[in-house]
Amino acid sequence: MATSESGTRPETLAKSRGKTLFRWNIQEEQVTDPMTGEETTKYVYSEVAIDGPVTKGKVLEAMRLAELEQDSDATDAEVEYSAAGDKLAQIAGMTYAELDDYINGNVVDLASAKAFLQKLGEVVLALLKRLSL
């Protein structure tokens, strides 16, 4: 399920790239433009794409699967964040100089560089998911 936003109120059903987009849970929000200070309206909503003819059953199934995916993503993000936190704890107390020394002492060949980048990537991904970015 995608959470989308728009400056105009979205239609519940819309065609896009050969699929039908079904939008629900449409919420109107007032936001202030940080550049101009003007208040504008944005719409935030859930959206799924449905192949072929749209039926009530397809819509309900797409919504059900989207909700399951969202719940699973939240749980997965917490597990990943916890695992990343363990990895991050290894370097969290370091100064920048100590981190440089750690990298210089431990990243000495392609295999160790890949291992370090994998660890770094997991931490960044978990943090991004935690922040819902």
Describe this entry's structure for a reader.
- Helices cover 52% and strands 26% of the residues.
- The two termini are 15 Å apart.
- β2 and β3 (19-32) form a beta hairpin.
- The chain is of the alpha+beta class.
- The chain has three helices and four strands; from the N terminus they run ββββααα.
- It is elongated.
- α1 (56-92) crosses α3.
- A four-stranded antiparallel β-sheet has the order 1-4-3-2.
- It has two domains: 1-54, no CATH class; 71-133, no CATH class.
Please outline what is shown here:
This protein has 133 residues and is of the alpha+beta class. It folds into 2 domains: 1-54, no CATH class; 71-133, no CATH class.
Number of individual domains:
2
Reading the helices and strands in chain order gives EEEEHHH
Q: Strand order, main sheet: write it out.
A: 1-4-3-2
C-alpha end-to-end distance: 15 Å
Number of strands: 4
Q: How does the major sheet shape up?
A: 4 strands, antiparallel
Task: Note the overall shape.
Answer: elongated
Q: What fraction strand?
A: 25-35%
Low-confidence stretches: none
Percent helix among the residues? 40-55%
Q: How many helix segments?
A: 3
Average pLDDT over all residues: 81
Q: What would you report as the Rg, rounded to the nearest angstrom?
A: 22 Å
Please state the structural category: alpha+beta
Looking at this protein, list some descriptive labels.
133 residues; alpha+beta; 2 domains; four-stranded antiparallel beta sheet; elongated
Topology:
Elements: E1 2-6, E2 13-16, E3 19-32, E4 39-50, H1 56-92, H2 96-106, H3 110-130
Antiparallel strand pairs: 1-4, 2-3, 3-4
Helix pairs in contact: 1-3
